[in-house]
Amino acid sequence: SGSAGRVVSVDDPSDGITLLAYCESVNCWKIASAFMAYNSQRNTEIMKTDAQLAQLSGAAAKGDIVAQKRLATMLLNGTSPLQKDVATAIKYYEMAAGQNDAEAERLLGNIYSEQGSVKSSKQAVEWYTKAVAKRDAQAMYELGLCYQRGFGVEKDMNKAIAFFTQSMELGCADAQNIMGYFLFGGEHLAKDQARAIALWEKAASQNHAMAMCSLGWSYQQGEGVTKDLEKARSWYRRAIECSTGESNAYARKLLEQMD
User: Fold this and answer.
1) What region, left, alpha or beta, does residue 93 occupy, with left being phi > 0 and alpha being psi -120 to 50 degrees?
2) How far is 84 from 74, CA to CA, in rounded Å?
3) Which phi and psi angles does 12 have, rounded to 5°?
4) DSSP readout, 110-167?
5) I need a surface site. Which of 16, 41, 159, 232 has the fewest CB within 10 A?
6) Do 181 and 211 form a contact (C-beta atoms < 8 A)?
7) Bridge partner list, 7
């Protein structure tokens, strides 16, 4: 594995992949858990010796929600100088969630969902539901996905659409984008391309790359709008500028196909 086809030490991910990542990838959970415990101990020492982290840790211990979520995010991502430590990240998010913080509840849902590293459909749905009760728009979208896919709940497109609609109305770009797909193609909803375009434009105004790609494709094909190849290229370029990863690669592919 890794760029050089080898596994490297837990402390040096510069070439190849870390032993923790390798153990997780091949489901060696006992070994992975040992490394996570090692990381937890190491992170504790770092937070004691690093002045800024010590201050952040102290604030989190006193109930500062912002500090709790910041530390959790750093531990979840392995932000230097901390090592990735999902278990401890969960604990910090749970501290914030214990104070009725909707964002922390949603982020816990993400960890346990299909997009996270510790999958538990039951816990994902439970945390999303708590955040939805506080009218967290992104959590509504995520819970809609659970119903769309049958993840942790019985598959139910009517409930999925209901959550997507609530999320969309509260301004969630992801929900605006997916509702645009349904309306544009007449899937699950009555076909309404004009409304789909309007929703994609709203999502694009929030730098949603996939919505920009959909707008680019619409102008390229003349579907729902008057065909305009320059506008199509412009939307693809904007998507490239504001995205990374798969969205960026997809936008680049669409633009290259035009040229």
Assistant:
1) alpha
2) 8
3) -135, 85
4) HHHSTTSSS--HHHHHHHHHHHHHTT-HHHHHHHHHHHHHTSSS---HHHHHHHHHHH
5) 41
6) no
7) 17
Closest CA to 252 of 221, 224, 176, 244: 244
Residue-wise pLDDT for 29-71, tens only, equals 454 555 555 567 788 888 887 888 899 999 999 999 999 999 9
pLDDT in tens, 68-107: 999 999 999 999 999 888 889 999 999 999 999 999 999 9
Torsion of CA 79, 15, 29, 42, to 10 degrees: -40
Contact 185, 191 (CB under 8 A): yes
Task: Look at the block and give the residue holding tokens 């609609």.
Answer: 165
- The Cα 87–Cα 38 span in angstroms is 12
Amino acid residing at 90: I
- Global pTM? 0.81
